[in-house]
Design goal:
By secondary structure, the chain is α+β, with helices and mostly antiparallel strands. It folds into two domains: 2-32; 44-138, no CATH class. It has four helices and five strands; from the N terminus they run ααβββββαα.
């Protein structure tokens, strides 16, 4: 029985080695390369008043009531011992900022009006499905 186990273990090791070789030799398809490039292009870094940087992925750019907005998902996780700054967040948090102008002269501002934020949240919900209790989160 021990000899049988040795044979099976050798076969498994050979299969594992072949799979590892495949992974090492994998060449990304043009579609995979384009997707990787797109994800990198769609990142943005915001800086708070204390010069702390926060990295976000741009989930969507949308227009609501004539204004341009960016929906952002944080790449940084909130630190349990943070200084009370809510700019970073969990991957499931969505941050909405108003966009003014286009690159390279683009500027962003916080959305402070509750009705405005609700209108943007509704548009995001139409596109992506149910979001967390939006009304409870912003009130």
């Amino acid at each position: 029985m021990s000899e049988q186990m040795d044979i099976e273990m050798k076969k498994q090791a050979e299969q594992d080695q072949k799979e590892l070789e495949k992974l090492r030799n994998h060449v990304a398809s043009p579609e995979e390369k384009a997707l990787e490039h797109k994800v990198e292009e769609q990142r943005i870094t915001l800086v708070d008043g204390k010069d702390t940087e926060y990295e976000f992925i741009i989930l969507d750019e949308l227009q609501v009531n004539g204004k341009q907005y960016l929906a952002l998902v944080s790449c940084d996780e909130k630190d349990e011992k943070s200084s009370g700054n809510d700019m970073g967040g969990d991957m499931d948090d969505i941050t909405v900022v108003e966009k003014h102008g286009d690159a390279p002269n683009m500027s962003l501002s916080a959305v402070t009006d509750t009705e405005e934020l609700l209108a943007v949240s509704r548009e995001l919900e139409k596109k992506y499905g149910h979001l967390t209790n939006v009304k409870e989160d912003i009130v």
